[in-house]
């Protein structure tokens, strides 16, 4: 879970979320959580290294391809990834398989 920002009025570090708002328990100041959210999300691989569009990654676990008997083997290198928001956050093309989506937790930066 991401760390919430301190209150902009009293700098209290104990802010909490309540629906779309962030609330300070000390001064009762409320502000929209969207204003506090970082505009650019950060994707990380299994080792915690930051990933960016165009990186090459290596698969660290055998992955079954849904709807097929094919398995993406450990050590498969994937070039020129594209990062997207969602559960499967990497769009890529794997040789012999085609277009796929992967989870960043199952790859490491090459």
Automatic annotation (TrEMBL):
InterPro entries named in the record: YjdM, YjdM_C, YjdM_N
Residue ranges of every copy of the Protein YjdM N-terminal domain listed in the record: 3-32
Annotated ranges, domain Protein YjdM C-terminal: 44-110
Record has Cell wall biogenesis/degradation as a keyword: no
SUPFAM superfamilies: Prokaryotic SH3-related domain (SSF82057), Zinc beta-ribbon (SSF57783)
UniProt record similarity statement: Belongs to the YjdM family.
Keywords: Hydrolase
PANTHER family: PROTEIN YJDM (PTHR30305:SF3), PROTEIN YJDM-RELATED (PTHR30305)
The keyword Hydrolase is assigned to this record: yes
Organism listed in the record: Maricaulis salignorans
Signal peptide feature range: none
Superkingdom, taxonomy of origin: Bacteria
Name under which the protein is recorded: Phosphonoacetate hydrolase
């Amino acid at each position: 879970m991401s760390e919430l920002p301190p209150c902009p009025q009293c700098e209290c570090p104990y802010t909490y979320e309540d629906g779309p708002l962030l609330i300070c328990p000390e001064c009762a100041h409320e502000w929209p959580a969207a204003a506090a959210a970082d505009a650019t999300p950060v994707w990380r691989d299994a080792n915690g290294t930051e990933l960016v569009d165009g990186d090459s990654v290596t698969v660290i676990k055998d992955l079954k391809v849904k709807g097929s008997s094919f398995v993406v083997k450990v050590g498969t290198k994937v070039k020129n990834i594209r990062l997207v928001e969602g559960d499967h956050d990497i769009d890529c093309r794997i040789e012999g398989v085609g277009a796929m989506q992967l989870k960043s937790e199952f790859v490491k930066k090459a």
